[in-house]
Specification:
- By secondary structure, the protein is of the alpha/beta class.
- The protein has 2 domains: 74 residues, no CATH class; 145 residues, Nitrogenase molybdenum iron protein domain (Rossmann fold, 3-Layer(aba) Sandwich), CATH 3.40.50.
- Helices cover 53% and strands 10% of the residues.
- The protein has 8 helices and 6 strands, in the order αααβββαβαβαβαα.
- A 4-stranded parallel sheet has the order 4-3-5-6. A two-stranded antiparallel ribbon has the order 1-2.
- A hairpin with a 5-residue loop joins strand 1 and strand 2.
- The termini are far apart.
Length: 232
């Protein structure tokens, strides 16, 4: 048994503690099944050894399963809440994404997540590489057949440009739509952060947000003291 623990690359102190504790528990089980003095010592020793092996293998097997399956189970499900408060659950991090929002398409390219894109709208034309992605129609009237054929894990939609009926249809088809709704500059930064989290590009999202903040600060500094023009 000690050789098996060594093969498992467990620390020496843990192997010693495990062997001692397992031996104690096995002895207790053997004593309860066959109290000392009621049978020849050889039989008692055999039973003790047998229970020791069973108990040890059970403990080791349970520990291995916990180590192997535990992290995997935690990594399987992904639950997120979009920018309008809708909760979506993904069975795994998205590997195939359809974007119904040109700004989201641009963000995905900026974050280096464009390999995940399997469908975009006819209006997604920036960066130029976005024109090479499969088209699934317009923002208002995307092709549901085209979206289904792309087999997406996630569809990005927006409160501006996409109809509620489209989002409802996607949900009914079992395709989770993630709705973004940036209405202010902080809202834009928040949407970038959320897209980065969903696609595993948190660091790239942080860098992009920092760059946009610096550009905004330069604009504020350059226009400091100037009268604000009226636009309406």
């Amino acid at each position: 048994m000690s050789r098996l623990l060594k093969k498992a690359h467990l620390p020496r102190w843990l192997r010693r503690s495990w062997l001692q504790r397992t031996s104690q528990y096995a002895s207790l089980l053997a004593s309860s099944c066959l109290p000392a003095g009621t049978a020849p010592p050889c039989i008692w020793t055999f039973l003790n050894s047998l229970l020791y092996r069973v108990f040890f293998n059970t403990l080791l097997g349970g520990a291995v399963l916990a180590c192997v399956l535990g992290p995997a189970a935690q990594a399987v499900a992904l639950t997120a809440r979009d920018m309008v408060g809708r909760e979506i659950t993904l069975s795994h991090p998205p590997k195939r994404i359809v974007s119904l929002v040109p700004s989201v398409t641009e963000t995905l390219f900026a974050l280096g997540a464009d390999p995940l894109l399997v469908g975009v709208t006819n209006h997604c034309d920036f960066p130029p590489q976005a024109k090479q992605k499969p088209k699934i129609g317009g923002m208002v009237n995307p092709s549901l057949e085209g979206i289904l054929s792309a087999r997406p894990d996630l569809v990005f939609a927006s409160t501006e440009g996409n109809r509620d009926s489209t989002i409802e249809q996607l949900t009914s088809l079992g395709i989770p739509p993630y709705v973004v709704s940036p209405k202010t500059f902080p809202g834009v930064l928040e949407s970038i952060a959320r897209i980065g989290q969903l696609t595993g590009r948190e660091e790239a999202a942080h860098n992009l947000m920092a760059n946009l903040n610096r550009r905004a600060e330069r604009v504020v500094e350059a226009t400091r003291g100037s009268a604000r023009p009226r636009v309406l």
